[in-house]
Amino acid sequence: MDIRPNHTIYINNLNEKIKKEELKKSLYAIFSQFGQILDIVALKTLKMRGQAFVIFKEIASATNALRSMQGFPFYEKPMKIAYSKTDSDVIAKLKGTFQERPKKARRPNPSDEPVESKKAKRKAAKEQARNMQQQNTLTNRNPSMHPTMGATVPEQPPNQILFLTNLPDETNEMMLSMLFNQFPGFKEVRLVPNRHDIAFVEFENEHQSAEAKLSLNGFKITPTHAMKISFAKK
């Protein structure tokens, strides 16, 4: 039996290695373009790994999100999206149909959270250090891309590199990549060490970067942070 369209979409086939808070922020970043989000539910229990619920204020928003993002590569895995079988608690409360569920006692399960090995942690730290070193080298070679200069320069002529400002503290490379890789010609995101509020995004040519700029300028990554996009100074 088909599930009727409703405010909540159910997503599975998510990457189980992503931490819960990062997962929720990334889901908000890519789904908030479809309408107001009331809540995102993502649990890391063994039963609910790789799954999440996104609750929209309007059913039309949920429908557009389902149609547009079906199969979207999210952390290297295509999302599988369907309408939720039942109303979420937040929607049920708005409708006045909410009923309190009995709480079940639950013991902590050590297997709920994967434990990283020391080797994996060392590898991740080494990779992060190398990336930061590359970013420092890039900034030193091209002073015009220094954040303090780029932020005060007026609109630059169109080119293949975009300069992003007013980003929230929780912004990361994967989050921005998922926003921009839907546009043709996307090459990479470059973060600036010790600055979470700015970043650079490179495309293959200025026409492709201009299309992304037109579509995403003013996009709200969080309710309080509307991303500002300009062409970088070359």
UniProtKB/TrEMBL annotation:
It is found in: Nucleus. It comes from the Eukaryota. Gene3D superfamilies: 3.30.70.330. Belongs to the RRM U1 A/B'' family. This is Putative spliceosomal protein snrnp-u1a/u2b. Residues 96-156 are annotated as: Disordered. One of its GO terms (cellular component) is spliceosomal complex. PANTHER family: U1 SMALL NUCLEAR RIBONUCLEOPROTEIN A/U2 SMALL NUCLEAR RIBONUCLEOPROTEIN B. It comes from Panstrongylus megistus. InterPro entries: Nucleotide-bd_a/b_plait_sf, RBD_domain_sf, RRM_dom.
